[in-house]
Design brief:
Order of helices and strands: HH
Strand content: under 5%
Structural class: mainly alpha
Helix content: 40-55%
Radius of gyration: 24 Å
Mean pLDDT: 81
């Protein structure tokens, strides 16, 4: 069902692109390609996903070992 949705969006965007100026046409066709990629489950490989961010580390205790200002 999701595949059909994105394929339909891609078709509609391409139809609009036929009537648009060259700059807008190029952008719309790029958008249609992205919709096509979403409609194709084979294109959803791990290569298209963003990697997880590197976990943050806590500062070493030596930073806090100086005299306190309390």
């Amino acid at each position: 069902m999701e595949q059909e949705f994105y394929q339909g969006l891609a078709q509609r965007v391409r139809a609009i692109a036929q009537k648009a100026d060259p700059f807008t046409c190029r952008r719309l066709l790029d958008l249609a390609k992205r919709y096509e990629a979403k409609s194709n489950p084979a294109s959803r490989s791990g290569a298209t996903e963003r990697p997880l961010p590197v976990p943050r580390t806590t500062p070493s205790p030596s930073i806090f070992s100086g005299p306190s200002e309390a």
